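Homework-ish question, so no full write-ups if that breaks the rules, but can someone show me the predicted structure for this set?
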Amino acid sequence: MAERDHETVNGARQPGGYFGRALIVNVTDGSSTTLELPAAVLRDYIGGAGLGTWLLTTLAPVGVDPLGPEAPLAFVFSPLVGTPLTTSAKFAVVAKSPLTGFLTDALASSHFAIAGKLTGHDAIVVTGRAAAPSVLLVDGDEIRLEDATCEWGLSAAHAETAVRERLGRAWRVASIGTAGERLVRFATISHDGRHAGRGGLGAVLGSKNLKAVAVRPRTKVAPADPAGVLAAARELRAASFGAATAKFRELGTLANLLAFNAVSTLPTRNFTSATFEGAPQLSAEELADLRGVTKNSCASCAIGCEHIYRRKGGKQVRVEYQNVFAVGSMCGVADADDVLEASARCDELGLDTISAGGTIAWAMECAERGLIDAPWLRFGDGPAVLRALDEIVEGTDLGALLAQGSRRAAEQVGGGSADFAPHVKGLEMPGYEPRTLHAMALGLAVNARGADHNRTGAYQADLSGEVDRLAGGQDHVFAAIETEDRAAIMDSLILCNFLKGVFDEPFADWARLLALVTGWDVDEAEMRATAARIVLAKRAYNLREGWTPADDWLPKRMLETTLTLPSGRVASLTAERLRAMISGYYAARGLDADGRQVVEPAPIHPG
Amino acid sequence: MVLAGGRSVRMGSAKAALPWHGSTLLRHVCGLVGRGVDGQVLVVRAPGQALPALPNSVEVLDDPNEGLGPLQGIAVGLAALEDRADAAFVCGTDVPFLHPEFVRRVVRACAEADPPCDVVLPIARGHAQPLAAAYRPALAVLAAKLVAADRLRPAFLFDECSVLRLDDDALLSDARLRAADPRLDSVINLNGPDDYAAAHERPAPQITVECFGVLATHHGRGTRSFRAATVARAAEAAGVPWDRHVLAAVNGDQTGRDGDLALVPGDTVAFLSAAAGG
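A: Not a homework solution, just the prediction itself:
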């Protein structure tokens, strides 16, 4: 292998951990070019979601159709990828979302990240549309398209296996299921069973007639201070075995379910309740005892949050809290067999479980109100969820409606159904009840990606007691901004969100890691400035694509109906309260009263 | 609003700082009030009065005048709330058995009164309870005028505004209060050392603990019953390490790390992992 570390681009020495270039592939004609990434850009946006935002802003035509050939789809790596730092083997996929019409950036883990980076690029950007179903191969600087007729119609996992068997084990593959082929607007891209899940990136890859992208490592890149990185990695690994990650390690994210039920934050039956009587049957505690099979971890991860459960019939499924919330409580389904089966079906078809569950729950309510003709689709009916998932991908009349996501479907159905369509900016809401988590309510409303629990972690402030979770105000604004900034850095370095409790001084700690890898003299203040820049850059992209203040808002149901807690306290989130928090957020972010940027976010390291 | 002033002559030492099951009486009462209201908890103290530690969420007001009695403290507190609340529940620092359901009952009566009233005054256990009552903040001016006129008893205020009086039956018509505090111990106040000793000898409240996630794995699943007066004592009883990795929620309400938060009989305390992501 060729050693590319610290090569120069245009005479400029590259910082450690970077190649300083992105590969731009046009699959219409099979051509490729190299885009040099100035060190100043890398320092301003780091990698992952941050660099992906810069690439999308730079490369995407204004107003581009997300499913059109001109729309770029970027696989973005980061300076930490390939280092021994735990959880750093992650990549971001960034594009204009066919679900929201705005920027979406989804992360996935494992060997694709390492192999993709070691093709010698900090990002691989795909444009165009192949003439026939294809696999894009990136082999160092060489690219080629191979026929994917044999893989077309397979699940993402089967396609990945088939492509690797054909190409060889050195190749790593990110692929789509049939949902992506059929342009379902919440289709995922998956690798090794993990999904870049939110915003319909699978449909974007499908729109390019690509079943998969395969990468093979051809080079190396070294950090600026290998010994320092190794020492930091040992330290981080040791810390990651502690109490701050015990929940993820021992029970996985599904441990949230029963706890959230106890504190009225478990969305149930399309947000008509925040507690679910069937929660105990679906809980991690119950499933671990009765169906637990094994645990697993991503490449380069010491936490090992993945918990594998046995399905009916002996098959296995990897389950997260968000899966079980979305196809379980959200749809009122308490039968664990049905929920595990539905979760597995989403994986096989390549569907984002949150959007799938949210859209089906909305449809169940529509059916019960007589707004759509689907008498079989009722809350609590597990087989009905499975049927709906299949119809979404098969493209029946109902399936084609639901494949658009709840926002577009509600626009077609009318009858007031938009009031209870569970989305923000078109992205379906995750398993955090905004009426009982007011900082999170703000985070969900203003986040660039839409209703999202990864780009904002404001629920942490609500649940920790730092703020009164039932009385949103200015403290909640600061909490939402702080968690949004933290996510911006973690998603750009990239480090797993589940490490967040490990860092005592997060921005300073992250600056130290980045300095060891790159050789830059970054500090806490610069990391905070970078975080704000990335958040604002996402908003700037959205503004360019037609964002209006009405997009930073929550569904009417959240603002006009209340929930009663077991304590007797009534939880309400009024439009007035939300508007006040949003105004506070805009002011604190330096935006104008309508949330528009007064000036572009300034680079601090002008190239 | 908790009135922490007063000379505590009969008690012989400041009531606010009296020990209460690992906490202090004032801290305990502030926690109970906070659990019963939706808004801010205020403490009104006498000039220069030293207070025991309180959570950051509690706002402390200084009463510029000492020795003028509770109406003066009420006037100061209501004035601070005029643009911030529709009604204020007012109590002293010496009501250790105050139940959040009692607070809610009184405040709700104020909100729902038809015709509207200025004060909801419980007549409980045979006595009017001006220091377990709800007041409209707009009464601040009238209260201050009465104090200035040396008419220092709350009864003078009641003479000049509309008062909704709730006797035992009326109070206990609320099912939640009837279940939580059937004898209306909420209004028992501690005047002297004997009162304090007798109250302190009562066993800590019977409460239920439930652990979730890894805490359930390590410290037991399902519900368990203990006696504990605070969240930290409940954690100790359940064998849960009360550290930064653990959160508690009482009756599914606020979640947090306030170990001194007061418990009352019948409470359910949920212990959760502080790592909430996913």
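Now go work out the reasoning yourself. Hint: Confidence is low (pLDDT under 50) at residues 1-6 of chain A.
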